[in-house]
Amino acid sequence: MSEHATPRINSARLTDYIGRSVRLTCKALAVNGDTAKVQASDGGEIIARLLPDVDITSQYIEIIGTVQDPSTIKMQACIDLGDNLDMKLVNDVVEFSHDPRFSNMFLH
Amino acid sequence: MSHQLTAGIFKRLFETDELDDTLLESRPTVQFLSYKKVATGGTTNNVDRYRIIVSDGEQFLQAMLSTQLNYLIEENHIAKHTIAIVDKFACNMVQGKRLLIVLGLTVLEKTADKVGEPTALQAPPSARSGAESASPAPEASASAISAPTPAPAPAPAPAPAPAHAPTPQQSVQRQGSRGSRGSAIYPIESLSPYMNNWTIKALVTQKSGIRKWSNDRGEGKLFSVVFVDDTGEIKATAFNQAADDLHARLQEGKVYLVSKGRVGLAKKKFNNVVNEYELTLERTTEVEECRDVVNVPTVKYNFVDIAGLQNVEKDAICDIIAVIKETGPMGEITTKSSNRTITKRELTLVDRSGYSVRLTLWGAQAEQWNAGDEHPVVAFKGVKVGDFQGRSLSMSMSSSMQLNPDIPDAHLLRGWYDGGGAEQSYQSHANNSGSGGSGLAFKREEVLPVQEVKEQGFGEPDKGEIFSSRATIMHVRPENLTYPACPTCHKKVIEAHDGWRCEKCNMSHEKPQYRYIITAAVADWSGQAWFQGFNEMGQVIFGMSGDELMEIKERSDTEMQNVLSRVIGSTYNFVCRAKQDNYNDNVRTRYGVSRIEPPNYAEEGNYIANLLRSEWAQ
């Protein structure tokens, strides 16, 4: 069951999940063909390899994908989150979900 | 037959540094000149003691009779001028004086003539009037004997001038000039119960009047002041006698050197000055007015701007500096609790944050406020924050204010206001966040789960309790969703032949305004309850006016169903009033919605995140 769990992460935690499926809530900075540069909730920048016919229309998205290396994620699915998102709060959620006090509430 | 007294024995006794046995066993013959019963110290001690004036023919001194020998006096074996041999005696040092204690004696002659002209031993030169002049010593020694600890304490100030009782004023002043000069000035911040040799130089920023109290333990009076220096502030209280003395001497706005007060823990119930300790001014406290103008401490402020008041909690204390934009008229209010009438006056404060807030003055301050048409800059210290209409301020017992103070913040405000700030329009906290109305704040910290709301059983009928809750709409009763209302006064109108008639306004309208009356079942993780709301609530939930909803209802049933079902599952923050109703012998608690707003998820999320970071979550 844990292999199917997709924890929500930020740029700092990418290295812990190389090869695994994760969720990345991020802000789209630039789109270049089939890759996009996105900013994670802790401010770090990541390259996202996009799916062929997916268009990024809103500022904030959640990318579900596999971590290829500490700075790249390969998209499997994408969720539109609109143009208004409190990234600091998102980062709080990411950090709390990894906090040992609360780890039994999350599937990691 | 007259006996020879052992002349000079007393002189020898008191001049030797060491008592040797020869003296102690010398069994001198002495004459008793007089005796007096003394009350012993110690409330439990019921034994009488006798003080005797003993003479050796040349000098006389005080002695105490050992209690075993009391019977000699009580059974009249000893009288005035009795001559006796002191078989056994002790000699104690008390306050630098030798005191004789007679432990055993043999009466030689009960009545005799006075032998010689004995003079007092070590009496002060001014007084040769016998026992009285030497009285301070035996008083002290009396208590010294009877009390197990040799405490010379009872003879403080009286010693230097026994003839006239010194007033506490005098003694304080005299000690003041001797003591405090030359001792270092300590910062108020450093005061603690662990050091007792301190002197502070401080300004009196507040002084209360003398207050009397009377409770089952007795009566008393007190007054308090607040001392301020560059490092901090501390409250000081004087009781009873000390209060009388110091009340006249301490003036607001003057600087004093204070020492020998008692430092204790601050009683937060009576004291909201920022310091964990407070001072008690006693009769031994020294207070000296300080004339030097250099280094005069000033009142310390920690200002919040009006916009920032939103972040200050209700009932907290803060300092604020602002321009008085408006002065309200003086009014009177009767307190529900004690039926007293109190005068009050509201001021409207504005500052550069673009916000305005109302501040209430009470009692004498309300009556004496006289700024005319001016718009003074006023600095307030220690005002209480309330949440009436968003945010409000109120002067409390320990608040103080300064008109047009000579501080940089005040000058800045003056410049800003005169230079155009006056024309600005201001926001008030009452306008903030959503459907304000009666200015009830949604208290995030006090959100009650629905089940607890019901369990609270909200008390008396006729008295509403206000609570905050977050719940999701589960169902809205479709019957009677709206009522036809008068567009002006919102009262229900009746359809008549000439339109819709409003009784209150005495008018008929062509078309009524449909206003909501909502009965909704709301629920959260804990339970479900029925909440009732009016037009405001309908507006928020349905997102359209009552009129529009009625149109849809007329138009299409299915669309109406859609509208109704869309509402289900939406979550809101509620501020409600719970009130018990008597309903055909049934008591039912009704929950009326005073305020409803959609939650701001970012705010709520941040609140929770902060909670998780706080101590509570560790």
Automatic annotation (TrEMBL), chain A:
It is found in: Nucleus. Its main location: nucleus. The keyword Membrane does not apply. CDD domains: RPA3 (cd04479). GO terms for biological process: base-excision repair; DNA replication; double-strand break repair via homologous recombination; mismatch repair; nucleotide-excision repair. GO terms for molecular function: damaged DNA binding; single-stranded DNA binding. GO terms for cellular component: DNA replication factor A complex; site of double-strand break. The keyword Phosphoprotein does not apply. Belongs to the replication factor A protein 3 family. This is Replication factor A protein 3.
UniProtKB/TrEMBL annotation, chain B:
Residues 306-404 form the Replication protein A OB domain. GO terms for molecular function: DNA binding; zinc ion binding. Residues 149-165 have a biased composition (Pro residues). SUPFAM superfamilies: Nucleic acid-binding proteins. Keywords: DNA replication, DNA-binding, Metal-binding, Nucleus, Zinc, Zinc-finger. Residues 118-183 are annotated as: Disordered. GO terms for cellular component: chromosome, telomeric region; DNA replication factor A complex. It holds the Pfam family tRNA_anti-codon. It comes from the Eukaryota. The keyword Nucleus applies. Signal peptide: none annotated. One of its GO terms (biological process) is DNA repair. Residues 123-148, 166-183 have a biased composition (Low complexity). Residues 198-280 form the OB domain. Residues 467-607 form the Replication factor A C-terminal domain. Its main location: nucleus. As part of the replication protein A (RPA/RP-A), a single-stranded DNA-binding heterotrimeric complex, may play an essential role in DNA replication, recombination and repair. Binds and stabilizes single-stranded DNA intermediates, preventing complementary DNA reannealing and recruiting different proteins involved in DNA metabolism. Component of the heterotrimeric canonical replication protein A complex (RPA). This is Replication protein A subunit. It comes from Ceriporiopsis subvermispora (strain B) (White-rot fungus). The lineage of its organism: Eukaryota, Fungi, Dikarya, Basidiomycota, Agaricomycotina.
